[in-house]
């Protein structure tokens, strides 16, 4: 089964941006880890990152058209992008993911416009949250 892991704005800066919040692992290292983890779970994982909202919407449309599950870290778009939310609602399975505990941060980070349209949300478990999301998809998808 093919799964898209879609990472939003600024996540290409992993390893450089606020390592005290997001850790020292780079996005390239995360992507390689997730491909290997997915392989071990019987999943074909494709990891993408963009700072372009239009590109993210296009990827979500692709997932909707191909009926692909998605692990989505919308990053800052979580809090205000109706365009992302409108695309998410079309995808059959989306797990929303946040590396940090958004509920323990600034007030504006506590609201998700995509949250009502996802299967579940993982927040605050660091990069390990991605592993949990993939394990959930593998365990709950029809063979």
Annotate the secondary structure layout:
Layout: E1 2-7, H1 19-22, H2 27-40, E2 44-49, H3 53-66, E3 70-73, H4 82-88, E4 94-98, E5 120-123, H5 128-140
Parallel strand pairs: 1-2, 1-3, 3-4, 4-5
Helix pairs in contact: 3-4
Describe the structure.
- Homododecamer.
- Keywords: Amino-acid biosynthesis, Aromatic amino acid biosynthesis, Lyase.
- Belongs to the type-II 3-dehydroquinase family.
- This protein is of the alpha/beta class.
- Helix content is 36%, strand content 17%.
- It has five helices and five strands.
- It has a five-stranded parallel sheet with strand order 2-1-3-4-5, sandwiched between helices.
- It is globular, with a radius of gyration of 14 Å.
- The mean pLDDT is 93.
